[in-house]
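As agreed, record passed on underneath.
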Amino acid sequence: MKTILALILAFNMSTAFANSCPVEVVETQAVDYLSQELGIKYDVATKLWNVETKEVELDFFQANIETTQSQYLVGVEVDANCDAISYQLTNLTLKQCYDTCLTFHRPGPQLNSCIASCK
């Protein structure tokens, strides 16, 4: 009996992610997180920002958000109900600037100056 219940529970858990979440639902959550981090009203953000969201895995999405001043990558992990359970923000504009500095400068004052100019 316990084996049957365990199999039913395992089947239910495996089918919980059988249907992926609508991209629009996750995109809304990603914009909400970034707008809160930047201190911008959600309504303003949705009017001014360009957003492209894609499903990377069944429970993980990436939103590429272009604001008026920078570009961000927001990774959003969702549960079976399509609710965000974690997120990660990456400022792509800063990352690109840092990578460029590291490519063209060796450790030292010039590299430090270049990295300081990225902010």
Summary: The two ends are 62 Å apart (CA to CA). The beta strands are 50-57, 60-66, 71-78, 84-91. The chain has a mean pLDDT of 86. The first strand starts at residue 50 and ends at 57.
